[in-house]
């Protein structure tokens, strides 16, 4: 049951629902009674994406259609590139899906600036990425989701790593009516490394679901995950993080942290951190906290003269900032700094 | 400057302040001494407006204005500063950013222009030098991983930067060795002036050797049990708080 299948077959019965354990908090079947009409082909939007002019190339996917490319991004051995990948939803109340492949040959380095841009209201969007990294390849994937608040949007990436390859990922989202950003990694161990970070700032009636699954199949692999989020109003955030250490994947080092601040009584955070360990001699740790903003720190800041809203903004920015700090690409990191303040790019 | 009259306050269900009256004119330094549990910290939190401290009776005014009706940040903008007994750690916020944000918020509330970055930096270097604070420390998240003494010094640094008019020092000497105490006291003394007033809350007389008060008050069982000159602090050091605790 996937959104892609439901769109292909035009059948709502194929939508993922709460009957699927992995979708219990992001039930699309109960939400969508009827699929909207397919999105039309439209021209490229005039405005630049949220990453501006950072990077030397841009792949534009509008209403599910990859413009001017064949849906394949391939880096040759040793090649280094920074590419913007923009998924734009441009027509209200219509549905579309897209799929794209990304292949990095041995030693290639790609900084992928992936954006989900809602330029219309109430669309239904699906995106699928198939990513393959050869030995010693490095992918830093930075995902910025700016979906419309009435949209339903799902993005699913599968990443295959070769030995010594490295995936460093940061997902930043403000949610949608229903939104799921999912990454599934096949991790061979053997000095391959994964960083699987993310942050959410969801308000209003928004919903954001960060789901990841990393499967360690071989020895000597590392995975490091830090997810932080702030929910306000009646918003809901979902974090599902699963790290599996398969039998024989000895000397795996896996760390997972998820920390959320809930600013309103009616906001909700559903977290399911899972470390499934079937090997011996592993170093695994996880921490999960959900709580209010530190009242003592808030009073301290207010005693120094900051009004409630300024103090709150400063403390939440600092909280989220830790995720931004871990972005490796310096220009992108500084560009996204303002996102920690209010979920927008200055 | 600060005028407290018959102040009653409670925390949760317990009445802690039971009719406290105190007058602190501009230009003076008053010490408040008292045994543990007398209400010293409660007084500082009531004056600064911390949540959970409920005033049930009485008044507190700053230059005639009802202090208790103001939000904590409004009180700060009018010049009230509390040096915390246990300064908070603020992860992810460099000390400089924190203080500059506070300063600009206060200025905005008073209808003044924001401080410029070079102006702020110049002042921060000066004050850090006076308080023997390593300038690099100001780039680190505020109080995170700082020693007890460093945190207290950082309180005085903030105080000097924000230049308040009414200063409350809550157990500023606790956790300080003698060298740090001297530095902190020098920093506080440098702020003494005819248009400022200070309330120095302390359990021990030691701090008052360095910050000489004009008046000493004994706080016991929620009210001022005695007032006198600096000699009262020495008497308390010799004889303890027993007789006041008993009388209450």
Provide an overview of this structure.
The complex is a heterodimer of chains A (346) and B (248). Helices cover 13% and strands 47% of the residues of chain A. Chain A has 346 residues and is mostly beta strands. A ten-stranded mixed sheet of chain A has the order 3-2-5-7-9-11-13-15-17-19. The longest helix of chain A is centred in the last third of the chain and has 18 residues, at 308-325. Chain A starts with a helix and ends with a helix. Chain B is globular and about 55 Å long. In chain B, the strands form two sheets. In chain B, strands 6-7-8-3-9-10 form a six-stranded mixed sheet, with helices on both faces. Helices cover 35% and strands 26% of the residues of chain B. In chain B, helix 5 (148-162) packs parallel to helix 6. Chain B has 248 residues and is an alpha/beta fold.
Topology:
The complex is a heterodimer of chains A (346) and B (248).
Chain A: H1 3-9, E1 37-38, E2 57-62, E3 65-66, E4 72-75, E5 80-89, E6 94-104, E7 109-118, E8 124-133, E9 138-146, E10 152-161, E11 166-173, E12 178-187, E13 193-202, E14 207-216, E15 222-231, E16 236-245, E17 253-262, E18 268-277, E19 283-291, H2 295-303, H3 308-325, H4 330-336, H5 339-342
Parallel strand pairs in A: 1-6, 2-5, 4-6, 5-7, 6-8, 7-9, 8-10, 9-11, 10-12, 11-13, 12-14, 13-15, 14-16, 15-17, 16-18, 17-19
Antiparallel strand pairs in A: 2-3
Helix pairs in contact in A: 2-3
Chain B: E1 2-11, E2 14-24, E3 29-33, H1 40-48, E4 53-62, E5 65-66, H2 72-77, E6 80-83, H3 95-109, H4 117-130, H5 148-162, E7 166-170, H6 178-190, E8 197-202, E9 215-220, E10 223-228, H7 231-239, H8 242-247
Parallel strand pairs in B: 3-8, 3-9, 6-7, 7-8
Antiparallel strand pairs in B: 1-2, 1-4, 4-5, 9-10
Helix pairs in contact in B: 5-6
What general outline of chain A do the C-alpha atoms trace?
A: globular
Q: Low-confidence segments of chain B, ≥5 residues, pLDDT <50? A: none
> Helix coverage percent of residues of chain A?
10-25%
Biggest sheet: strand arrangement of chain B: 6-7-8-3-9-10
Mean pLDDT of chain A: 96
What global shape of chain B is seen? globular
Oligomer: heterodimer
Using only C-alpha atoms, the radius of gyration of chain A works out to: 20 Å
The chain-level mean pLDDT of chain B equals 92
- Which class do the helix and strand fractions of chain B yield? alpha/beta
Q: How far apart, in Å, are the first and last alpha carbons of chain B?
A: 28 Å
